[in-house]
Structures are given as C-alpha cells and as structure tokens.
Amino acid sequence: MIACFQEAVARASVTVDGARMAASLEHSVHRAYDGMNIPDDAPLVKKVIEAARRIGRTIEPQGTGGGCDANILNQRGIVAANVGTGMREIHTTREWLDVRDMSAAAELTLEVLQLHAGR
Length: 119
Known about the structure:
The chain has 119 residues and is mainly alpha-helical.
C-alpha cells in the first residue's frame, strides 16, 4: 500500500501562481493486529468440522489476515475462529451476500454450540 501511495504522490503536482508544487507523503505504519492461522488439529477447528459434517456440510479451514475480533482474541490467547458467511465482491461498492449463505452459517453456529454442549 505504501508503494501505491508513493507512486501516486510522485505523479501529483499543481501549479500555483506560476510555482510548481509537488505532493509529498508522510506516513507511519502501526500493526493493530496480527493475522491468524489456527492449526487444523486445534480442538475448535475439529469441533467446527464435526459440526459441519453433522449437518451435511464440509468446512475447509484457511488462515486469514483478518481484521476482526478473532484476531484480537487469538493475540490474547483465546482461540477464536471466523466462519465465512459467503460474502462476495468483498470490500467493494458491489459487496453482497446471499441470505442462504448467512442462514447456513447460522445453522453451523447452532450445531457447534449443540456439539459443545454435548448434544
């Protein structure tokens, strides 16, 4: 991202009262959270996979850079995972979600809770 900003700044200038003024960039980077990659054999992941199997679905665990509560919780030693909700064209002005995918995620969440409760 910084390189993109630097390239844009290098091309940006304006002339004011006959004087050319070039754009400049000052930046600092502060990591607010780390990415997360919970091992496939972690108890939580195994439980989610089993819950999916019980409702006739499959789960493909993947690490993520994230930007969610789970990132912060994992940094603090609380194993937490996200369940994808099927978002499409994410982080664009055309982002959308099929309600059936959201419903499937809710169904999976309920099954995880039931499995965890021993049912």
